From TrEMBL, chain A:
One Pfam family this sequence matches: SBP_bac_3
Name listed for the protein in its UniProt record: Polar amino acid transport system substrate-binding protein
SUPFAM superfamilies (alphabetical): Periplasmic binding protein-like II
Coiled coil: none
SMART domains (alphabetical): PBPb
InterPro entries: Solute-binding_3/MltF_N (IPR001638)
Amino acid sequence: MKRTFVMAGALALAALTMPAKADKLDDIIASGTLRCAVVLDFPPMGFRDENNQPVGFDVDYCRDLAKALGVEAEIVETTFPERIPALMSGRVDVAVASTSDTLERAKTVGFTIPYYAFENAVVANEKSGIESWEDMKGKTIGATAGTYEAIWIEGRLKEWGAGEFRPYQNQADVFLALSQGQIDATVSTVEVAEANVKSGKFPGIRIVDKAPMVPDYVGLITLREEYGLINYMNLFINQQVRTGRYQELYRKWVGDGEPADLTVKGVYR
Amino acid sequence: MFNYTFRWNQALKSLPQMLEGALVTMEIAILSMVIGIAIAIVLTLFRLSPLRPLRAVAAVWVEIARNTPALFQIYMVHFGLGSFGIHLTPYLSLLIGIAYNNAGYLTENFRGALTAIPETQTRAARSLGMTSLQAFRHVVMPQMLRIAFLPMTNQMVWAILMTSLGAVVAMNSDLYGVANDLNARTFRTFEIFAIAAVIFYLITKTITISARLLAARLFRY
């Protein structure tokens, strides 16, 4: 009896004196701010409105997550290649940045279940004579460096053994080069392609075909070992779909129609 | 807080690819220096010329090359000329951009070197019956290049480092381009850029040391 009392006392003392082993989820809630890395050069997922404020699907998604956690959202703009250094150096807590969940990358960062899935389209300069995705063989093809579609098309060009690949630093440069005729075609997500063709900023381009790749599933990312946070975000994504918020955001930023199915048939997760 | 486990063995597998990139980087830097020096000599002559339009060309070139970011110059070669329908490959855009920058800076180097050469030498050469071009070619220029040699190696180092700006014109075969591509694929940012930085350092250090050795041999009085 006396022994248990002493042990309980020792435990209580330990709990008071030892630094609490808090994980990222605790840290975020304690700090009252969720810092999200968002790529703001990727409409309609992330971009800036006419008042230079960050808006888009990913921005709203971050705000929803912050709201669920009961904290404020802070949007930190990053480029695609900067997402990982931002996470590793602790500048952001998560990246809500349309990150494709490849196995190679999962060796370094922790992915949630997919929160969105992209279809990719082939956008060509009207003068290039490209009518289908196979016509890209032997042409000069550009894409945004570091994206899933860039890695895909570079692989195809290598396979074909003909054509040149040009990775531009951001989406706007790709479409500028395409509009100028420096490149013959690009592969980009249907959402981005439609937004750019519609914007009228890039004359002489049109969507000619779908790119025949596996849907580009994207997840939220955080540090690999933050299971608590990953777990929470998995449930959050599930709830976004369940409550209809996923569809609502799709209608708001992408357009009418159904958002992509986030499940893969025949396998768990 | 730095939450990262380095995996050097994995990253070092991409070393051969990066060394290939380093060769492209050196090739561009050397070519851009050769072109830059040639243009800078011409611009220096323009500056000395009694003809105003020639002096103006040299002045505008030097002003733009020295007072705008190299990034802007390279970007303009690619997208600026591109809007006029002149389409250059990333390789050429980068090479021309760096050569343009080199020419501007080297012209200033040469001007500095020129002021160190007494004007009486030109007069002496002219009084021996040389034309002013001959005097420049045989008397002034050899001394000018000698004085400007070490500052020129500075520019060479700068040219090596400037190749990393090729990313803005979709250059992907140089050292930085290769590193960037590997980073996108694997997310091993810190290992890959650390290796790239070490290679950059080794290249530039080799250049400065060999230039100093070369200068000691070439320019013995």
